[in-house]
Amino acid sequence: MTDVTENRPRWHGVLERIAEARRGDSSESLAAVFMLGATVLALVWANSPWGASYDAFWHTHLAISFGEMSIDLDLQHWVNDGLMALFFFVVGLEVKREFALGELRDRSKAAVPLTAAVAGLALPAVLFLLLNPTGPQAAAWGVVISTDTAFLLGALAVIGPGRAERLRIFLLTLAVADDIGALAIIALVYTDELNLVPLLVAVGGLLLIWQLRRLRVWRGGGYLVVSVVTWVALYESGVHATLAGVLIALLLPVYPPKRKEVERAAALARAFRQSPNPEYARSARLGLERAVSVNERLMRLWQPYSAFIIVPVFALANAGVPLTAETLRAAATSPLTWGVVLGLVGGKFVGITGATALLHRLRPGSLAPGLTMPQIAGGAALSGIGFTISLFIVDLALADEALADQARVGVLAASLIALGLGAVVFRVARSSLPEEPSRDLLRPVDLQRDHVRGPVDAPLTIVEYGDFECPFCGKATGNIRQVREHFGDDLRYVFRHFPLEEYHPHARDAAEVAEAAAAQGRFWEVHDTFFAHADALEHDDLLRYCADLGLDIDRLEEDLRDGGPHNHVADDEIDASSSDLPGTPTFYLAAGDAVPQRHLGPYDAKTLIGELERMRAEQAAEASNAADPR
C-alpha cells in the first residue's frame, strides 16, 4: 500500500514541520534562529565576491497589471510593502486578541508594561535626536523605537532565567504596546503624500470588513477579497500599504468558542464518522471552522508562515549591508550609527527599567508575583534588539543609500550589544539568587481575588494549590475539614488552582467552571461538588452539577467565553510553576501576619494541626518577648 504522503510536494512537508515547530515550546527560539540565519546569509551574500548580485537581484522589477492599472516594484519593495503587510496583519491579530482575551484585557495588570513601553518608545527617540538633531538623518528617529518581538522572545528562551513565564508575559505585553506605537508612528510620520480617491476606496474597504463582522460572516474568503482591494487602494493612496494588514486585523472578530457551535461541530463530526462521505466531510470541516473566531483561525494559519518565511525573507532582503572598510569607517564616526546604538541599547534599557522601577516604587505590589527588577532589567536590555521594524523604518526614512547603510550597521551592532548586555544582566541576577529556593508563598493572600473559607481576618492561614481531578486532593479535603473543625474561627482556608493536565485531562475545565461559578457567588458549593464527583468531570457533567446547584447556566457559559475564569486559573498555575511546586496538593501555612510557608511534610489532619499550633505558639512567644524585652 502506498502512503499518500509520498505524493505530496517536498515543500509541503517542510511547511507542516515548520507549523508544528511553531506550535511547540521551542517555537520562539527556532523562529529567532531562522531570522538569524537569514541575516547571516544576507551579510555573507552582500560581502562575497558575488556581492553585486545581491543588489541586482533585490532590485529586479516585477509588475502586476490589471487592465490599465499596474503596480511595478522591485523585489525588495514587494517584500517590504507586500509580504510585510502579512507580517503586520499577524501583529494586528495578536494585538486584537490581547485586548479582547489576553493580558491587555485587564488594564490594571497591563499598567506597568504599558508604562514601560511608552518610556521605551520615547527615551530612545530623544537620545537619537540628541546626536542627530538636524539634517536628513534626523528623520530616522523612528528606527530606534521598536523592539523585535521574535528575537526578544527567542533570546529570552535561550539566555533568560528558568521559570520566567511572568517575565515572558511582561515582555510580550510590552512588545505588543511597542508594536502599536511603532505602527502609529509609521502611519503618522512616514507617509509622504496622500491621494484622496484611493484613500477613500481603502476606507470603504475597511468599512465593508467592519460590516461583514457585524453580519457575523465567519468564513475567510469574503474578508480575503475585500482585504486585497483595500491593500491595493492604500498603496495607491500614498499611505504605507503594510498598515492595511494591521487595520484589517484590528477589525476582525475575536471571541472564545460558543458552546452551541462546539456542540454543533461535534454532532457534524459524529455524522461524518458514522457515514463518511464528501458532503458530511465538508459540513464537519465548516462546522469546526465556524466554532472558532476568524481572528484565531487566521492567526493559527499565518503565524508559522510569518515567523519562518516572511520575516526571514525580509531579513534576507534588507540586512545585506556591504561591510567594506569604507562603510565601517563611515559608521564608526557617524552620529547616525551611534544614535541608533544609543537609542536602542541605552534608551530601551534605561527607559523600560527606569519606568518600571518608578511605578513599582510609587505603587508597591504593582509587579506580578515572582517578577523582580533584575529580571525586568535583563528583559529591558534584550528589548534593544530592534531588528525587523527598525530595518523596515530605515527603508522608509532614508533615501540616501550611504546613510541607510550606516543606520543598518547601527541596528545590527545594537542588536548584538543588546543581546550581550541581556546575557550579562541575567547572569548577575542569577548569581545574586539564594542557593535554596524560597518556601514563601509567591502571591500574598488577596481578599479581592482569592477564595477564602472562614473569617478573612483569622489568625491562622492555610493556602492549598489543588486539582479537582487529583485523588490526593480529594482526600485532602477531608483532612482540611477536620483542621477547620479543630480551629473554628481561628482559621481561614484559601484554595488556588494547579490543574495537572498531563495526568488529569478535565482538571482545567473544572477549574474554569468553578471560577465562572464564583462570579455568581457559588465557588465553595461547586468546589465541594466537583471533589465529590472527581471521577466524572466531563464538561456536560460540570454543567449538570452547576444546574443542580441552581446556577444560571447561560450566564456561566457567557462568563467562560469572556475569558476571565481562564485568566484566573492561568495566573494561579503560573504562580505554582514559578514556585516550582512538585504537584498537588501543596499547602502553605502561616500564623498571624507572617508570610505563609510551604509545608513539606505529610498533610494528614493531625500533622497540619500540629504545625499550625507550633506556629501559633512561636508567634505568641515572639509577641511576649517584644512586650517584655527583659
From TrEMBL:
The keyword Metal-binding does not apply. The chain crosses the membrane at residues 30-48, 75-93, 114-132, 138-158, 170-190, 196-212, 239-255, 305-325, 337-359, 380-399, 411-429. Keywords: Antiport, Cell membrane, Ion transport, Membrane, Sodium, Sodium transport, Transmembrane, Transmembrane helix, Transport. PANTHER family: NA(+)_H(+) ANTIPORTER NHAA, SODIUM ION/PROTON ANTIPORTER NHAA-RELATED. It holds the Pfam family Na_H_antiport_1. Residues 417-620 form the Thioredoxin domain. It comes from the Bacteria. This is Na(+)/H(+) antiporter NhaA. It is a multi-pass membrane protein. It catalyses: Na(+)(in) + 2 H(+)(out) = Na(+)(out) + 2 H(+)(in). Na(+)/H(+) antiporter that extrudes sodium in exchange for external protons. Its main location: membrane. Belongs to the NhaA Na(+)/H(+) (TC 2.A.33) antiporter family. It is found in: Cell inner membrane; Cell membrane.
